[in-house]
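for the record, two folds in this file. i put them one after another cuz i was lazy. first one right below, seq on top, structure tokens after. the second one comes after a little note so u can tell where it starts
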Amino acid sequence: MLSTYMSYQLIAKDIDKSLDRIENQPTVDRETKYYLENITKVKTIDEFVKNDRLFRFAMKAHGLEDMAYAKAFMVKALKEGISSPESFANKLTDKRYAEFVKSFNFAAHGELATTYNRAQSDVPKNFIYQTELTTGQANYALVEEETSYFLENIGNVKSVDDFMANERLLRYALTANDLYLGDYATEGDPTGAGYVRTMLEGGVTDPLSPANKLGDKRFANFVGAFNFVEYGANTTSRLAVQMGTPQSYINESELVLFKGVPETQRAEVAYFTANIGKITTPGQLISDKRLLTFALAAYGLDAKNEPPERILQMLTGGVSDPQSPANQLADKRYAAFVSAFNFAEYGSAATTRDEATQVTPMRYLEAQTDPESAYFRANISTVKSVGDLLGNERLITYAMKAYGLDARTESRVLVRDMLLGGITDPQSLANTSSDKRWAAFVSVFDFAQHGADATSRAAVTDQTPKLYVENLDPETAYFRANIGKVTTIENLLADDRLLSYAMAAYGLDASTQSNDTIRKMLVGGVDSPTSPANLLADKSYARFASAFDFKTHGANTTSRAAVLEATPTRYDTMRDLGLVKLPAAYVKAETDYYKANVGKLTSIDDLMADTRLLNYALASYGFDPADESPAKIREMLEGGIKEDDSPANKSGDSRWVAFVSAFNFVEHGEQATSFSLALKPTVDKYMRQTIEENAGNTNEGVRLALYFERKAETLTSFYEILADPALARVVRTALSLPDSFASADIDKQVQLFESKLNIEDFSDPKELGKFLTRFTSLWEVGNPSSSAQTSLSVLFSQPVEYGISTNTLFAIQAMKR
């Protein structure tokens, strides 16, 4: 007979082969197949325990085969779960029961207990929870109201005087930059307004301006956004004001807003907008790979193909000199890029200019969201007539899509007649059509009125690409495609999707308002100061009723710019800020996509490659995908959660731990998004139990060694070892301590163990190997090639993974009373 050491080594040195041999045994193979074919059909605890074959397999897998008869005992443990420290399973000193309940957690997961997977179950549940979380926050209503007021009125501000005259707007803008008017009050300037005016009137172009001379850069940021000195009346129409200021205000409010799953391009735009103003040198831009990639892509350049040295040379050379590196290139893409980020001419202010903050995101969206936008801009000026437009399939398709029309379903004859008729005549085909999208489309491409100059107008060159990009949002596309059919209040109330969109644009949640209330507000209009909408302190309804003013405009209400143009633009802005409750149809569509595809993921690369799915997952754990770089996400995933010093565990943010736990490819490999504790892990445990059981039939020492090897990496203290008779026996044998030592004071036992061994060595495969070599050798000395012990005394000295612990026997006895 082989010695204990040799028997152990034969199994442990190639555990995979040992497992394969076990799996191929006819009985094991038969039981495993039955288990896997049937366990997922089990939906309740009663079904589980009544199927004796499944139940015994699961019990054996967890080392509880000897307790398979005690079904009432196990039902109690399963019913109470493990969420509470006071639950039945958690109060038992034998932790096998808690592990068993964790694998078959009917208390927590109900019917999903035997199929439960965090990625498959928790993520969709979390996503829906996040959608409901936003509006419940204490200061949400205030932030939403102030932001709505700002967006509604800031466009009317054309000068410093206008700005200073509206204290509500001024305070909002200051707060967005962590500035407070009263902090600058003096005896001669009791409100602080004079100080703020001085800052605004000085601008930021001059390095010696009042704002730039301050060591605190908050005022420079504020004035950089509201730079009336440089941009004059156009100041407040810029992205830095329209999007940047509300976003900063929301950030200062510390609201946690759920923005759903942004399109990949929108996420990149949000990151760029939030961070580009912090860049003051070419070196800083080059060092932020995400910003640099975005900026280059906006001008048709690929960061992967451009060496940092070349980019630095181009940026440093500027474009003022005709002989600069960028200007000397025949390819003018670099010149366009350097012109936008012109550090050579504007220094640290380069990234606060409109070319960087507004033009670059627009160019990026055109290049990345859809190359059709870039094609449209490049070619629309060549179109001089209706015939030219109809003759270019790509341009006519784009133009019509921007206004919610589908060129594929409309006859070219109809399109031609619409365009030739124009909109000047009230009886033109477009004006008399019940579908108001035609009037909107023809009013822009109005060859009848503007002739060859029609396509050089801003409505074509600027507005059309803007609407096209907005229409990439399915909710906006639906709104534009269908709102023209609405001619009455009742029509609007009848379409939940249109109503939800329209109200959300003005800060209202249709799901919380009755049709009677909405009807009352719309019927009352806004022409009277005493109308129901105007009487409300919250002006959201007044803004909504003003746009959808059926009282004044009747059937023509939805053909007005306030509906067709302003409402989608407002919705788009509010959505990007996180101040729109996501439509049910949107949530369903994203959740359906996630559920249909998450099980197909087999690696971190797969997850990172599917940005729609990744963004959904991030959002479900409360992250804004726009704020998280791919490099950081990958770092978190690749670090796993097993080690205390993994990036997720060290982050101090429990959301990262939860996210990585759900997508734990490090630990579970290809099965991360499909495995269930009730499936493969239970089968794996069954195989390991069978190996140890078979080994124990011929040599108890081998079984103890295999058991210790399996448990070793989870051990953190010697008290855990003493709590498990089998582990304690291994340690006593390895240290040549008599069995009587087990009756000594617990603390003294631990003290001795600590003086002889380092608990951390059990997590080191090399040190563990040395320890188990010592154990098996000493076991052989005391039990020379003996067969398994069978005396009754062994019952309470066997590993707790087999046999019944004293604690459990007492628990069963207590249940009988």
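(here's the note) second protein begins now
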Amino acid sequence: MPDLLRELAAHNPLFLAGATLLCAATMLISVRMICRAAMARRHSQRLTRLFLAAAVAANGVWATHFMAMLGRQSAVQTAYDLPLTLFSVIVACGFFLAAWWVEIRTKGGSRSPLTALLMTAAVGGMHYIGIAAITSDASNHVQPLRIGLSLGSGFLLFLLGTWLLREERGHRRAFAAVAWILGVVLLHFIGMPADHMTAAMSHAAHRADSVSLAAMVMGGSGSFLGLALVFLLLEYRGVRHRNEENLRARHFADVAIEGLIITSGGAIVDANAAFWELVGAARPDVGLVRSRLPDLQTEEDVQALVRQEKPREMVMVRADGETIPVEVYGRHVSWQGKNRDVLAILDLRARKEAEMALQELAVRDMLTGIGNRAFFVSTLTDILEHGKRHGRCLAVFLVDVDRFKSINETCGHATGDAVLGAIARRLQLLVPQGAISARIAGDEFAVAFDVTERDAGEFAVYLAHQLRMPLPDHPDELPVSVSVGFVVSSDETPDGDTLLHRSGIALLAAKQAGRGNAREYDQSFDTSIRERIRMEREIRQALDREEFFLEYQPIMSTGDHCLTGYEALVRWQHPERGRVPPDQFIGVAEECGLIADLGEWVVRRACADAVSWKNGLGVSVNVSPVQFAMSDLPAVISAALGDSGLSPDRLSVEITENTLLQGRENVRILRQLREIGVGIVMDDFGTGYSSLSYLREFQFDRIKIDRSFIGDMLRERQSAGIVDLILSLGRVLGVDIVAEGIETADQLSYLEARACTLVQGYFIGRPSREIAPAPSAAALAVSP
């Protein structure tokens, strides 16, 4: 120790101070650059920063070494071997790079002993190679004990500095640089050769490839300053880039609709403008997270929200103490190089108000201001359950405005709306306190309250009478009247929907009895309805089970008594009820929409059967007006023809006059069928709204006289006259006339005498699954 103090006293204080400051600057810059490298995201960027840090540290320590040597009075004239001296810098740079690369690659832990060992190799290698570069044999004059002490002390201090770099945060990481500075200083002074040996070195002869100590100091200091300048430029660029990023992030955050806050340890670190506006406080007045969001009392609550990865509704306390509903999202973010939590806060006040408005719309009729069907049914069920528990009956009255469609059509929808509003207002005045009322359909109102069965009947009549009123703004028109259907609950009534259904059945009975009537529900009312529902279900099953089949009735030419084709008639063989007449299921199929599926099946079956007929005759199928609206009829027929291979000219489509009454769209569809090549037949002509304009607008291939006229033409002059008129019309228009329903020889003779082109009926041939090869013998016996 006395020798060390004596050697230290032999140094110039100014050079010692300069060397210490140079070493301090080196290590502080190195610590800063190592931290920057650790934060780099790209591998190449991280390696570049580490290399620059290693170069700065190597040059700084190298310059520190030679500046300290320059301060030693006995070594001023010492000369150094240039290649070996430069090699010492390269060794230091390499070991520093390896040391810090090892350290930053370890996430969440540290390899401090290995890092410290590599740093000791960097500083010690540079130091002793530098001593070995002295042009005299100086390296042999450093005692082994001093070499061991210098390297050991350096290792311990480098180990301490590495640990501090890993554990400390922010400016406290400067303590790591202090430990490294002490490590460099101790390694240098303990590892210096004895003073008398250095004096001998100073008298050694200079070689041609040696350089002076002053030159070494100047070169090392210059290179260090150059690298330090590069570091300062990079640091300046990094700071400016971070400031720009922070400013841009601030601008983005401030234009966000949601309130955004950055939190750490339960405290609010920063927030955007939307948050300040939402809180209603100045920016410094933010405080802790729990002061604004009571549901997030602790940091654990915040972390739980972040892990949840979905929004949570909670209340927020404003600066004035008001609580407002908000929705909060949580995410982990990197903010200013640090791990933080960001909370996005969305104001739910507008949404909650909209939800309340929607809830009001969901139960309120906007036109009349009273409840709607959803409100009535849900409330009705609750009242019904309450009445059952207390032994009370509940009556439901369904009120329907008579002729309401006519009111809209003749007086306008504004008048119709005025009628509905007047009915609703008067209804509110007529019903007893505690009753519920609602508009449940276009012109239907419902009322419900506790009442006895006798009182219910009297109140229904009272309603029908009191709701009779003059038409608003149209005093000359018929007065408005209502029909009332009602039902009284029993212990077996399951729910409010059932009561409403039964009152609807009673209302239907009231309307069938005439306008302005009231009827109570009777169980016999819905027998027909249940039968209809059953029929609909069985039609669906029959389609799936293939219970339908086709029969073909022949059509005969009166000119030569030869068959010209067949009409396909759908039949239903029920497994329990046997054959079901078409008039019992066709109407139900049309009402429930199954006619589209049934009609498509008929077309496909008829086409498939006709292809197999050896006589090559055509087939006609009946198409309901509903099929025009419910299915793409041209596509259905085209597919049936294509799949079966039947020629289009062998298929005819029979329609009724009601098809044309449904609008010009159906006429367009008929023209599409005509383009396909399918024949078009007017069926049951004379039974509907017969109009010559139909015949002028569309050219039919055939017109069928309804069987009702054929059956009466030999007994009634009027029917005979209509038949003669249709036959004359056909001759004028050049259209074949088909008389259906021929059942006697006299009917056939009458029609043949009047040049009816085609005939059809039981007398010609009965419908059967197998086509008839020729007309019946009785028909053939009649002379053409």
